Structure formats: C-alpha cells, structure tokens
C-alpha cells in the first residue's frame, strides 16, 4: 500500500488516502517465460543443437556480415523483428562460445 498526500481537489479533498494496489492481471503475463520453461528450452537447445539456417547465420556473423545475416534470417523467418531477435540470440551464443573457449 502506498500512502498518498492529502488531496486538494476531488471527492476526497482533505483526506489522506492509501492507494489500493491491485495484483497484475493474468493477461499481462502472456509471453513471459517461467523458470521451468526456460530450463526446458535450454535443455532442448543443448540436446538438439542449431537448425541449418541458424548455423548459416552463425557463419555469417562469425565473419562479421551482420546485415547479410539479418537479411538471410528475415527471409527464412519472415518477420523483421523476429529476425533481429534471432540474430541477437545467435550472436549471444557465439560470444558465449568465445568466452568459454579461452
């Protein structure tokens, strides 16, 4: 509960009121990953590896052809935003591989 200062206007003028904090609506949770799902997805990724188009994108990123990789992913996935997200994901995998290799 958050206390609000005495209001100067409105129906509750002069009274100190506490704001009623409501729980977040269920539909606001859609798309957010739970801990369990995150672990399961990581495990599946580890077991199955990368798809062929992801491996090609990784090769393009390795030789720093970022724009080419984005265009390639957009062609394969179909959406610009999803392609950018996939490019960042593959880039993160590459940087992790570089860190662990040293």
UniProtKB/TrEMBL annotation:
It comes from the Eukaryota. Keywords: Ribonucleoprotein, Ribosomal protein. GO terms for molecular function: structural constituent of ribosome. GO terms for biological process: translation. GO terms for cellular component: ribonucleoprotein complex; ribosome. Pfam families: Ribosomal_L36e (PF01158). InterPro entries: Ribosomal_eL36 (IPR000509), Ribosomal_eL36_sf (IPR038097). Belongs to the eukaryotic ribosomal protein eL36 family. Component of the large ribosomal subunit. This is 60S ribosomal protein L36.
């Amino acid at each position: 509960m958050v206390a609000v200062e005495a209001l100067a206007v409105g129906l509750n003028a002069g009274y100190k009121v506490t704001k009623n904090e409501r729980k977040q609506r269920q539909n606001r949770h859609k798309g957010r990953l739970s801990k369990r799902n995150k672990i399961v997805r990581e495990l599946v990724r580890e077991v199955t590896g990368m798809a062929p188009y992801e491996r090609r994108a990784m090769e393009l990123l390795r030789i720093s052809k970022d724009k080419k990789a984005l265009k390639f992913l957009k062609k394969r996935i179909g959406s610009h935003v999803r392609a950018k997200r996939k490019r960042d994901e593959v880039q993160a995998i590459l940087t992790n591989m570089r860190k662990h290799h040293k």
